[in-house]
Amino acid sequence: MPEQIYGYIRVSSTDQNEDRQMIALHSRQVPERNIYMDKQSGKDFDRPQYKKLVERLKPGDLLYILSIDRLGRNYEEIQRQWRVLTKESGVDICVIDMPLLDTRSGKDLMGTFIADLVLQILSFVAQHERENIRQRQAQGIAAAKARGVRFGRPPKPRPSNYHSAYLRWRSGAITGTAAAKERGIPLSTFRYWAERYERPCPT
């Protein structure tokens, strides 16, 4: 029997539902207090709950994850973390969706070789899928911009009394800082509006 049983869940901005992972961990009798969950990208392992989990893991403990992409999506980092946990920390890992990735079985040379090979393939697939997601997102944004979709916050409208402050600033009667303060706006906003004010209209 393992010393302690733990579970790790990761959901990203494109996959906010953790129910399937939670059900899988509960089916393996992972105590609720030993389940750690991060809601962020799998591009690296700089995740608060994952770090807390690693600090708690001890030799002989067992860690469950539903699939290798829930651990991460960076090919090299997945393999490095796997080595740290299994070789350096002495923790067993079981990937529920891939029975071959269960370090409790097949500890002989052949079993280790097969597990390492499967890990390399799956971690490569995880990173490849992440790169595909990024490419699809970039293509979607480019297509939206081509249709005239604007991203970010809409520009703040100029107040009706801006023109008089602009003219006094332009003539040197007041400084930009004073004009911005008078109108209750940041200096950067005042300068941005002034630049657009002075820009000639296209003919």
Output the keywords.
Rossmann fold, four-stranded parallel beta sheet, 51% helix, alpha/beta, 203 residues
Strand and helix layout:
Elements: E1 5-11, H1 19-27, E2 35-39, H2 48-56, E3 62-65, H3 68-71, H4 75-88, E4 92-95, H5 109-146, H6 162-170, H7 176-183, H8 187-198
Parallel strand pairs: 1-2, 1-3, 3-4
Helix pairs in contact: 4-5, 6-7, 7-8
Describe this entry's structure for a reader.
The structure is a single chain. α7 crosses α8. The protein is an alpha/beta fold and 203 residues long. The protein has a four-stranded parallel sheet with strand order 2-1-3-4, sandwiched between helices. The longest helix is centred in the middle third of the chain and has 38 residues, at 109-146. The termini are far apart. The chain is elongated, with a radius of gyration of 27 Å. It has two domains: 5-136, Resolvase, N-terminal catalytic domain (Rossmann fold, 3-Layer(aba) Sandwich), CATH 3.40.50; 162-198. Helices cover 51% and strands 10% of the residues. The protein is built from eight helices and four strands. The model has no long low-confidence stretch (mean pLDDT 80).
